[in-house]
Each structure stands twice: as structure tokens, then as C-alpha cells.
Specification:
about 300 residues; mainly alpha; Tetracycline Repressor, domain 2; 16 helices
């Protein structure tokens, strides 16, 4: 009996972009962007260094996303069959080689910025693989690990500017706590949760914003433009509250996931508020405007055809 011919579909660029969650990349690169501009003296800023450290962040973030799917390959066959690996759009070996290439590019780019940035980049990669390979399903420990990743991501920018985390530590710490809260909430996408528990998990996302708002108000006397930080913080709080209220009507994986996506995208607004709180108006505005391409990329991801349609 003749066997039907089977055509092997070659991976496309869009498959690799999906593997690294390209729609979330803007939320990664704004962390070192903010860190660099906070630490660099106006006269010593280097556009090349700023672009390089953002590129390092993009490579490391992409490494982490690809590694996530490599570690979760078997699990994703059931929970996320639409992802490139379980859907067969990219072979596991090819994804492994791609992940290694991304990691090598990140380390190489960081080496151009000096030993401190290289060591931080290496440490961030270790944190990323520790999360994906060990702590992801370990509850609070995994959430704190993810928060530490974002702390280190902003620290990359500070180090690239030749600064130390020193007096600036509350800012990456705020980002780290915010991302820790997001990760706690994301764990519920695969578990059942009642409304009380859901709101208890959403509340920390809003509470983390309060110290930054208070910091901006406290700086008004020295930095009159610091009040601008309240605008992205208010927008983020309203966006989170509205999305959470809608999700609470029908708590399921999809509705909780929508809150997680808004919270992750909101990192852009959080970093913008941090810059505004230090009186960096143009820099904060530029950061906030990154929200537009981020939303476009999210729309691209939502409209991307399923594996069967793409074949």
C-alpha cells in the first residue's frame, strides 16, 4: 500500500519570534534603558553603550524564553500545544542550538561593556536557567528568582553607565517585587482559585506602586517634574484594576492570563514612572512610548495563525 508523501515544514522567522516571545521584548529592554539613564551623568552618556546594554538584555531575555520551552517541552504538549516545539514548528535540537547562539551573543555583547556587565550578564543567565530548570514550579522560591532576574536586568543598565546599584537599589528592588507578584499570579493560570484568592494575588501588584508614587511626591520640592511619574502609575493601576475586574467575572486560565499580560506589559509604564520620578522628562516619555510597539506586537501574537493554519 502506497504511503502518502509527508512534507516537512521548515521553521520560519515567525516561529523563532514566537519561541522567544518577541511581543514581550520591549518590557525587557526598558529595564536597562531606565537603569542606564538613571546612573549615567548627562555629559558621559553614550548612545552606543545604551544600545549595547539593551541588546544584551534582549539576547538574555530571548535565551530565557527559548530555554523555558526546552525545559517544558513535554509539559507543553498538554498545556500549550500551540507553542513552536510541541506544535512541531521547530525541532528541539534546532531550538537548543538557537538558545545557545542567543546566549553566546548576549555574553559577547556584554563583554564589550566591561567586566562588571559581563559578570552581571553571566549571573542573569544563571538565574534564568535556575528558574527554568529547577525553581519554576517551586512556588515562592521561583517567584523570587524571577524577581531577581528583573532586578539584575535593570542593574545591567546601571553597570553599563559605570555606576553601582548603591543608592539606586530601591528602584530595581521595586521592579523585582512587582515581577515577583506577577509570577505569583501566573501560577494560578494552571490552578483553580476563587475570587478572594484572586484579588489577594492581584493586590500586591497595586501595592508595589504606592512607594514609588510616594517617592515621586517626596521629590517634588527638588524635582518639580517628578509629578509626571504619577501619570504612568495611575494609568497602570487603572489598567490592572479594570482587567482584573473583568477577569473576576469568569475566573479561568484565559482570564487570569489576560491580567498577567497586562501586568507584564505594564513594566514599561513602571520604568517610565521611575525615570519621571528623577525628573528625566524626555527619557521617561520615550520609555512610555515603547508601549505602542509593545501593544502592536501583542496584537501580532494574538492574530498569528495556529500551527494547522500555518502549515
Amino acid at each position: 500500500m502506497n504511503q502518502p508523501l509527508q512534507f516537512i515544514r521548515r521553521p520560519r522567522l515567525g516561529d523563532y519570534l514566537q519561541l522567544v516571545r518577541v511581543w514581550n521584548l520591549p518590557t525587557a529592554i526598558v529595564d536597562p534603558y531606565a537603569g542606564y539613564l538613571l546612573a549615567a551623568q548627562p555629559g558621559s552618556r553614550s548612545l552606543l553603550h545604551l544600545c549595547l546594554v539593551m541588546l544584551v538584555s534582549a539576547f538574555v531575555y530571548s535565551t530565557g524564553m527559548a530555554a523555558n520551552d526546552l525545559f517544558d517541552h513535554e509539559r507543553d504538549k498538554t498545556l500549550h500545544p500551540e507553542r513552536p516545539l510541541p506544535a512541531g514548528m521547530i525541532k528541539r535540537k534546532a531550538a537548543g542550538r538557537f538558545t545557545g547562539l542567543l546566549m553566546l551573543c548576549g555574553l559577547s555583547a556584554s563583554a564589550l561593556l566591561g567586566l562588571q556587565v559581563l559578570l552581571l550578564c553571566f549571573g542573569l543567565i544563571v538565574l534564568t536557567f535556575t528558574y527554568n530548570g529547577w525553581l519554576k514550579h517551586k512556588g515562592l522560591a521561583g517567584c523570587l528568582n524571577m524577581g531577581a532576574c528583573r532586578f539584575a536586568n535593570m542593574w545591567l543598565g546601571i553597570a553599563a553607565a559605570g555606576g553601582s546599584v548603591g543608592r539606586l537599589w530601591p528602584l530595581p528592588a521595586t521592579l523585582g517585587l512587582y515581577v515577583t507578584s506577577i509570577t505569583l499570579l501566573s501560577l494560578q493560570e494552571e490552578e483553580s482559585v476563587n475570587k478572594t484568592g484572586f484579588y489577594a494575588l492581584v493586590s500586591p501588584l497595586l501595592i508595589v506602586l504606592l512607594p514609588l508614587a510616594g517617592f515621586a511626591v517626596a521629590k517634588l520640592e527638588r524635582e518639580p517634574a517628578a509629578w509626571l511619574a504619577l501619570l504612568p502609575l495611575t494609568l497602570l493601576a487603572m489598567w490592572l484594576f479594570a482587567t482584573a475586574a473583568g477577569a473576576a467575572r469568569s475566573l479561568n486560565s484565559a482570564s487570569i492570563g489576560s491580567v498577567v499580560r497586562v501586568a507584564v506589559t505594564g513594566i514599561i509604564l513602571l520604568d517610565s514612572a521611575i525615570l519621571f520620578s528623577y525628573g528625566k522628562q524626555l527619557e521617561g516619555l520615550a520609555c512610555a512610548l515603547v508601549l505602542l510597539p509593545a501593544l502592536i506586537l501583542i496584537r501580532y501574537a494574538a492574530r498569528r495563525p495556529s500551527p494547522s493554519e500555518a502549515s
